[in-house]
Amino acid sequence: MYVGRFVIVGPSVAAYRVSSRSFPNRKIIERDGSLTVVPTEEAEETDNPYVSYNCVRTAGDQVVVGNGSHVDPITEKLELGYPARDALAESLLAMDYEKDDYDTPRIAGVVGDDSYIGTVRNDALLVEQVDEPTLVATYEKDSPESFEFDADDAPSAASEALGLEFEHAVCAAGVERTDEDVRLAIENGE
């Protein structure tokens, strides 16, 4: 099944995976403390604004994961002191779904003292608190749903997300939030 890009948020771990039929030549890199999706050296040039973006950013002891440019305003709102639910809901609503040929939903999550996951589609804004691993994807699974996810640290979250049997895996990021710090991991399938 092709579900496109997806986010999984557990209370203390999260993962983001790029799955793509149209732009498979991408990878995740670490840049200035953030994880960013970028084209690989082999990728054809494109002016598509949805190909490169920050997919993971930290705001103090909270972490934002998502499938596009909305990750930045969510992070900025958290840094200003907004509650995680409000930062997620306001930013998703303001950015709205992607105005591409598929009306692609924007998906995101926040891992913190209270963790949330959300999506904005062409017909709904959904934001839910997370007490167990929860998945939301851009297609097919575009409403948050409980999901079996066994990862307990950033490397295993990235690896497990990349290995899930959804079609067209490209790369993945993993997040782990502990009492002491935040840890990030990248899995580019190399």
Task: Sum up the structure in keywords.
single chain, 190 residues, alpha+beta, Glutamine Phosphoribosylpyrophosphate, subunit 1, domain 1, seven-stranded antiparallel sheet, six-stranded antiparallel sheet, 3 helices, 13 strands, 16% helix
- Topology order in helix (H) and strand (E) letters: EEEEEEHHEEEEEHEE
Distance between the ends: 23 Å
- Mean of all residue-level pLDDT scores: 96
Label the overall shape.
Answer: globular
**What's the helical proportion of residues?**
10-25%
Strand content: 35-45%
- Our Rg estimate from Cα atoms comes to 15 Å
Output the structural class: alpha+beta
Q: Per CATH, which architecture?
A: 4-Layer Sandwich
Largest sheet composition: 7 strands, antiparallel
CATH topology-level fold name = Glutamine Phosphoribosylpyrophosphate, subunit 1, domain 1
What oligomerization state is this entry in? single chain
Major sheet strand order = 3-4-5-6-7-8-9
CATH level 4 superfamily: Inosine monophosphate cyclohydrolase-like
What is the β-strand count? 13
> What is the domain tally?
1
- Show unreliable segments: none
CATH class: Alpha Beta
